């Protein structure tokens, strides 16, 4: 087997995974375009698509095309995406895989060990042409039958075209770990109990995967995806503590927001392959420092945190709820929300877990809190009524509701309080609003809450800054208190 390397990563709700370097060369050529090809547009194969330039145009401050190193996958306006997808499908001449099996991507089924030709993909800009190499617009994953699934790494977005950073995949600033240096590393078989605990797994029998090895695929909510081998090794933590036989994934094909300054993502969910589950700890806690800082955050495993000693307020506790339909998630009983001094007229049923759906979870792997659409609208309207600042048009602020404020002003914002069963989370200002400058040098104050069209509410890590949060797994209780996390 070729000499592979990895950076440790962990699936938030499932298992520990790592990002493996498959020694692939990744490049994008930007060459000067000849006359007639310098117009904005897209070519698939040899076909210049019949998409008008106006589909990519910036009109009255909306639409247009941006290039963004912070966005993983290129997204196109819906009408443009459909034309690209249809032409790509017509030229590749392979069966389309049903959408539910491939997440947000358009994928095609190919025979085992085959590497069929794919049509070229070219982006035309004013005066320049971006002729993408194969690895910068398709990725491949195995299916359950051992065949290959070829996926188009482009998504359908809004009216703004975004050129993402897929061409930067597998380029990590941190040094990789050479797997051959580990004397305790083991592959897992596809019929093992560990492999059976994965949500999406298959049996390796192609040129990419050793025979009968466990191959996983995992899709994140932000549309990142990783595919690789489930492996077992001895993990050594701080102070020399070592634990043998910890399962993790070694990702060979990774796309999305796997940042070059990260050594990994630790999974702390309730699933059997999460880190707390494998270490068999009775509790864990975390204390996240400010998101706009560079200071490290503290995580404690099986060390019962003294929240009273380090807290800066009253310790609050609320039950953790089990949901058999989603057993890896941590559900809470959210009862209501207060904006300013107004308890919002939202019934408790809007947050209730009903027949396995809806409910409220707390998730350290999700950045921004999201609310069901009907709840978000009430919160947004009340917040806007109380802040008494002009609302910035939505196209200028992405998914967030933002308000325009004078330069260097720091206007008061209404309080935001989350009411749980037996506990109240009174958020400080920096845990629910953020500020960014606009083009005129004024300030935009944005509410760090959004709606995702889901009936489930999610409490994200932005709302957990400088808050010491303890998960008591034995007693199914969540406790939290405001803290100065960089001093913990």
Automatic annotation (TrEMBL):
InterPro entries documented for this protein: Pepsin-like_plant (IPR034161), PEPTIDASE_A1 (IPR033121), Peptidase_aspartic_dom_sf (IPR021109), Plant_Aspart_Prot_A1 (IPR051708), TAXi_C (IPR032799)
Keyword Hydrolase: yes
Origin superkingdom: Eukaryota
Residue ranges occupied by any Peptidase A1 domain in the UniProt entry: 137-481
Annotated keywords: Hydrolase, Protease, Signal
GO molecular function ontology, one term from the record: peptidase activity
GO cellular component term, pick one: extracellular region
SUPFAM superfamilies: Acid proteases
Signal peptide bounds: 1-22
One GO term of the biological process aspect: proteolysis
Protein name: Peptidase A1 domain-containing protein
